[in-house]
Amino acid sequence: MQLIKPAQWPESFRPYQQLILDEIQTINQVLDKFVLLTSPSAPQMGPVNMTETIQTMAQAIQSTSLRQDITLVLEISTHSAYVMGDPDQLLQAFQFILNNAIDASPKDGKIIIRLIENESHLRISIIDNGPGIPENLRLRVLDPFFTTQKEGIGLGLTIAQQIILAHHGKLHFSIPTSGTEVLVDLPCLPNFYEYSLCISE
Question: Which of 142, 137, 75 is nearest to 110 (CA)?
Fold first, then answer.
């Protein structure tokens, strides 16, 4: 499709070339997620500055949030907070979670990204002010291919959970009076092995 020049197409077919290329790109994205889900690569562990990772994630997603008139609010400390992990995989996991929050948010909505340091772990919260998760669906949100979005695939949160578990962390939900809060707990760098043991138990 990429090699065919517009002049080589019958004139009535020419408007469909870009449409076909766009659909092929969509299929590629679905297949990439499916491969990641079924054959995940082992994380390349090293110290990760979560303060910088959250700032990078917010910058990467900013254009999407601006298009939907959604404000991102960062509530993070100015000093560095470290975990043991794979920076690329963690960034990917949080982008999946944040994309879900954006999809769930109304226009002129607000998403809060909060980093809290505890003795044994870091807690990253992503809070939206959307309609929330209906009670009858709360046990299914992490299931593969489950989605309430018309254009959704239903793999983002599943992959995010898989990555967090590979980092000996925990992904869970809090349902406030409105919206949804996704919480990710990751062991602090000095307590990585002790905290992972507690999670596994």
Answer: 75
What's the helix, strand, coil split of the chain in %, to 5?
45, 20, 35
- Please, what is the angle between helix 87-104 and helix 50-67, to 10°? 30
Across-strand partners of 110?
71
Is the domain of 48 the same as that of 139?
yes
DSSP state letter for 106: P
pLDDT per position as a tens digit, 84-136: 899 888 988 998 889 888 888 888 889 999 999 888 889 999 998 887 776 66
Q: How far is the C-alpha of 3 from the C-alpha of 119, rounded, in Å?
A: 57
In the chain, the number of structural domains is 2
Q: 88, exposed or middle or buried, with CB in 10 Å at 0-12, 13-18, 19+?
A: middle
Q: Are 103 and 152 in contact (CB under 8 A)?
A: yes
pTM score, two decimals?
A: 0.69
CA distance 160 to 167: 11
* CATH code for position 66: 3.30.565.10
Residue type for position 19: L
CA distance 54 to 139: 27
Q: Please, are residues 165 and 62 in contact by the beta-carbon 8 Å criterion?
A: no
Same domain, 24 and 51: no
